[in-house]
Amino acid sequence: MFTSLVIFSGCYMISAEDMADKDVFQTSNQPPLQFGQAKEPRYLLYDVNPGEGFNLRRDVYIRVANLVKVLNEDEPWILVLPPWGRLYHWQTRELGAQIKIPWSTFFDLESLRKHIPVIEFEDYLKVIGKPVIGEVYYLQSYKEGWDKWEEKMDIRECIDKPRYQQDENGKWRGPFFYYDEVYAEKFACMSAQSYAVSMKPFLMKNTTARSVFLDRAEALIHGMFSEWSAEYWTARRSMRFSRELRDIGDAFREKYLRSNDKKDRTELKDWTNMKRKHGDALGGPYLAVHLRRKDYLHAHSKQVPTLKNAAKQIKKFLIPYDVQRVFVATDAPDEEFFEFVQKFKKTKIYRFEPTKEILEKYKDGGVAIIDQWICAHARVFVGTYVSTFTFRIHEEREILGFSQESTYNRLCGSEEDDKECEQPTKWSISY
Ligand SMILES: Nc1nc2c(ncn2[C@@H]2O[C@H](COP(=O)(O)OP(=O)(O)OP(=O)(O)O)[C@@H](O)[C@H]2O)c(=O)[nH]1
Ligand SMILES: *[C@@H]1O[C@H](CO)[C@@H](O)[C@H](O)[C@H]1NC(C)=O
Predict the structure, then answer these.
(1) Looking at the domain 241-400, which fold is it?
(2) Which CATH class is domain 5-226?
(3) Which atom of ligand 1 is nearest to the CA of 375?
């Protein structure tokens, strides 16, 4: 149930109360997958540069998942999902250190498993029985640089001071998602200019350990499985948000935005047989805007509008799309949000405010997903310049079948004129 409707200068700010009475809150404690193959499966682990945000990490998952997919054409490999932790943007103090968060908090593992075999890190530790990883490769560039791009990979000396050190017993100690007891038996740096799937021969022939860990996996690029390929989209479609987070978002849509899947033509099916065309989805009777603030004010000062200017831009969409409600997804502090709300007179402005219970259970990452989910169902969406948070909403809308005009819009900087303000690239879904 949602409570506390705060009226603020003629507009509403919404607080959502938990729906804990619903029986959808089961943690998925699945036993690890069993395979029919005669060969024992091997495990692939990976991690990403600690500075990268949640939504870029989702993109790295797609690359590694497609590598695992290709590996499984010849050998059984299971992808170990890297626990989420200590991301730069997850700053809610009351939550303390947001570490060791399993993927099931955010994503639907059953859905991921329709693409490739995956297990949580904790389940991996149980299967192995010891906190050990066989071989770790730390991906880095080539010290000498390069003049033409070609695919290559070589074991090399580490360029940076490595995050891994050997202890007195010869065990390699490293960050390993804040699991201090975990160690590796072997460690090396690898200079690589490589597509993700090109790691396959190396993994199959040059490594023998039961588990192999690739650190700095963002160094691997999509290559032919880029955003334009069906392979990208297959992996992307498998990345469904957890049922619980979707339910919270859907309940908010229904209650405050008069939006539900039936009316809006956004009903979900098993992704393996869901295929929509642009324009199939209508969306709820509201506009959604991703109003990225905080570090973006400095990082992209030219392309991020003032609040006043943002409101002006948003108003232009309301009549053409015949909507009177605006949902705001934002990382802005409350004062900035209130300031934004005051720029509107009649239009109702909504924001999802988690209850203490939702926040504690799903953390900053879960709240951001709920925001994305609500944005993905709007009749029209306006995003922020080069924000991966925005890009993931674009993709969600491609999957649901929205028209591209209703999706690929962005806020322009206050000083940018129409010519300068290039609209986002349209990434059409392919099957
Ligand atoms: N709840 C919520 N959180 C947001 C919103 N916008 C940004 N954030 C938070 O800030 C993070 C932004 O980092 P990313 O997800 O990597 O996306 P980005 O906006 O491209 O930022 P960079 O990748 O750092 O350039 C998100 O993951 C959220 O944790 C929002 O609208 N709502
Ligand atoms: C993998 O093994 C092959 C054959 O021994 C060797 O030529 C190649 O350099 C190795 N790859 C790496 C990255 O070490």
Answers:
(1) Rossmann fold (3.40.50)
(2) alpha beta
(3) 31
